[in-house]
Amino acid sequence: MTAEIPPALPLRERKKLRTRQTLVATALELFGAHGFDGVTLDGLCEAAEVSKRTFFRYFASKEDVAMAPTQDLWAAFLDLLETGPAAGPAPRPAGGQPGGRPGAQPEGRPLLGLFEDCLAGAIGRMPAGGWTGRVLASRRLAARTPSMDAHGLAFCDRTIRAALVVLDHRLALDGPGRLRARLALDMLVSAFRQALDAWVAQPSGHTPEDLTRRLRAVMAELPHAVAAKAEPRA
Amino acid sequence: MTAEIPPALPLRERKKLRTRQTLVATALELFGAHGFDGVTLDGLCEAAEVSKRTFFRYFASKEDVAMAPTQDLWAAFLDLLETGPAAGPAPRPAGGQPGGRPGAQPEGRPLLGLFEDCLAGAIGRMPAGGWTGRVLASRRLAARTPSMDAHGLAFCDRTIRAALVVLDHRLALDGPGRLRARLALDMLVSAFRQALDAWVAQPSGHTPEDLTRRLRAVMAELPHAVAAKAEPRA
DNA sequence: AGGCTTGTGCCACTCAGTGGCACATTGACG
DNA sequence: CGTCAATGTGCCACTGAGTGGCACAAGCCT
Prior knowledge:
2 copies of one chain form a homodimer.
Chain A: H1 12-34, H2 41-48, H3 52-58, H4 62-66, H5 68-83, H6 111-125, H7 131-143, H8 146-170, H9 175-201, H10 208-227
Helix pairs in contact in A: 1-2, 1-7, 5-6, 5-8, 6-9, 6-10, 8-9, 9-10
The structure holds a DNA duplex (30 and 30 nucleotides).
């Protein structure tokens, strides 16, 4: 229905996967039709044919189910950050996912570039069928639902902390290094949110590639943002 | 009790002010003693001697009352940004609040420097009696209360949007300029959160001046964060 | 004093989220 | 193949946040 159902899993797992997907799909559909607050959990559960108790075994909150697409993305980001190329110079893999093996050069590559590639790679990993549609629905919803936005921000924050832990394992971070890594991660999130907002706002052509392009474009603005001057109004 | 009660206000206003202060003080006290989730609104209202209905005329949510100190700070920031020096070169006013009058130089001062001074000025404006204690209590609470943290993030986000509107009025922002301003504001918030975390974590000496010093120190790290390289672990 | 405005208290209500228990399905093992 | 343990699910009752409505009282104006 929504994404691939990895075949030949313990069967019990397949059921869980399907239930989860049904929940997400139904939720986005109902929320889109009646607004986030216009749908009660009872209504959603009835539509998805599960009990409310079951719903909360899959998602921690009503907001959670609507943000599943974003959470999938950041989970993939964390995975890439953990298993992908740590710090090779990698002047940018040109094509798609970063595939270079972990290098060990004394002078590593730029941190921001590493983050950017991992996130771009995560975007490329998202299931082709329907993911873009789900993010789109999810973000449009979040734009007019404060509580969803708040949970989204909080989730990004948690992701950043997790990423910091990963970095601590893979990189040599001294005091200032840790602070800088934290700031750089915040910048990544900030840039991604800008890119995502612009991507959602565009009238058509919502492809993952386009999102990636926008991300890279905003990331390239970061140095200019640091150096920007305030030009008073004429 | 907590801050100055501006004398000779319409009297009606003074009562409101006092009610609000009582609510904040009682809330922080109870939350500190029993934890955020360990206190019900009914209990809080009883302790503060107001009805629950009244509580919600002052604060939008349970989280809101616990974050009053932070909200006061950002309100002051917005005010300074709106009424303070717009974009004069002002290589840094050395002393305290930025006092220079709005200039109209063709090449303005750095955006980040402007933000930094406004926020530092806002810190300086906070009521001397008890404000630091309240932020301290508030932040320590937020650190172990996810929902508070989420609301805090969301509030910062709203503040940034408001700041962008102000900047639009005062500065000449073209397309890339707007994006850069947005990114720079995110950087300010990110830097402030780092500074605040470190400030809260320190064992003693929680003065506003110290917080300001930390803010400036983290802000100075921003350019290094952009340029940071990933040093692989040995 | 009169009336007008504005903040407050009380009450009943909706709905998100939780805990407990009984039941059904799955998978493993004898 | 039958049985048992594990695990997922449904149902139910409950707490607690947040809202709407209305009547009352305290401040303000003339």
